Amino acid sequence: MIQPLKVGNISISALAVAAYFLTFSVNSSIDVSLLVLMAGAVWMQFDGKSRQVKFNSIDALVIGFVIVLLFCALLSESIQKSFILSAAFVPALLLYYLIRHCRGDSDFNVVLSSLLIQVMGLAVLLVYKATTEDLLPADVVKQIGSSILIVPNDVVFLVLAIPLFLALHETSRNRAISAAVGISIILIAVAVISLQSRLAVLTGGLSISCYYLSRSRRISAMSVLSVLAVIVLIDSIFEFALIQKIISFSDSRLPLWYSAWEMFKEKPFLGFGPHTFGEFYQAYFVYEGFAENIVVDNRHTPWPHNLYLELLAEYGLLGFTAFLAIVAVVVRQLLRRVPKKDDDWLAVNSGLLAAFTGFLFAAFFELTLLRLWVVVFMFALLGFSALMLEQGMPAKVKENSIRKSLKIKNRSRTVSSV
Length: 418
What we know:
Elements: H1 12-23, H2 32-45, H3 57-74, H4 79-84, H5 89-100, H6 106-132, H7 137-144, H8 156-160, H9 162-172, H10 175-194, H11 198-215, H12 217-237, H13 241-247, H14 253-266, H15 277-280, H16 307-335, H17 343-362, H18 372-391, H19 395-417
C-alpha cells in the first residue's frame, strides 16, 4: 500500500524529479531544471539511504534504445544537427535514472504533486491569455513563452497527465490534492477547447476512458459521457469553435507522412539520422494528387507529425524496432495486474497504462522527439513502469512464488517427519 505523504519518507531522487517538473517549462538562458537533475543524481550517490535498484527488462531495453539512437546519430546525414537537437535526451535519461531510485510510496505522491502544480500553472496561463486577449491559438501559445509549449497541439501534454492525476487522487488521501486534481482537469479542458486542439480532446477522452475502464467498466461508460458533456458545455462558451473545426475536417499531415515514408524507403535500415526530417523531406514532398480536404502546406515543417514515421525516416528499422520492443514490454507489464488487494498500486498501474495508451495514440498524429516534453514524458512513464515492474510484482508471479515456498516447506516437513 502506498503510504500517505510524509516529508521524512521522501527520497533525494524524488525531490530532484519534483524540482525538475516544477521548473522544466521555464524558458531561460540557464537550464536550471537540468542543473537540478544533475545535482540530484550526484547527491544521491552519497546518500546512504538510497535504495539498490534491481535491473529488469525495461532497463535493458531503454539502454538498448539509447545506444541505437546514438549509433544512428553517428551515422547521420547531418551529424551536428542530430546531436544538437538530441539534447532533450540528457534530462530525460537523468529523470529515468532518478525515478528508478524512487521508493514508490510517498515519492510517487510528491513527484506527481509537482507535475500537478506545473500543469495547473500552464493551464491557468493558457486560459487567461485565450479569454482576455483576442489571439489565434498559435499566438496564445507564443505569448506564454514556455519551453515546452511550441504549437497549440502541445496541450496534449496537459491531457496526458490527467490519468496520473486521477491515480494521485486515489493514492494521496489528501483533500487538498484531490481538490487540486479536480480544478486542474477543468482548467485543462478549458485550455484545450480554447486552443481548438482536436487531438488533445481525442487523446484526453481516450486516456480518461482507459483509466476508468481498467478500474471499472461501469465507471468507464460514465466517464466517457461526462467528458463529452463537459467538452460540449465549455465549447458552447466559445461558440462551438472546436465542434465546427471537427466537422469541417481538413488536414495537412498526409503529404508529410508520404515524404517520411519515401525517406524510409530510401534508407530503410538506419534512416537519415535523428532530427533530419526537416532538412531532407522537401525532396520527397508531393504537392498534387490528394483529396480536397487534404491541405498541402508549403511552410517548412521540421517533423512529420507522426512519431512512428519519424522513427522510420530518421532511425530506420533499427530504431523503430527498438522503440516497438519497449512499447511491447511496457504494455505487457502494465496489463499484468498487481495484487487486487493493493488498490493503491492498482490505481498507479491504471494511470500509467492510460497515459501510455494516450501517448501512443497521439504519436500517430503529432508527437516528435524534437519536443522536450515528449522525450521527458516518455522516459518518465518508462521509469515509473520499470519501478512498477520491480516493486509492484504481478499477482500471478507472487502467487506462484508463494506456492513454491509452501511446497518447499511441506517437503521439508515430510522429510523431517520421516
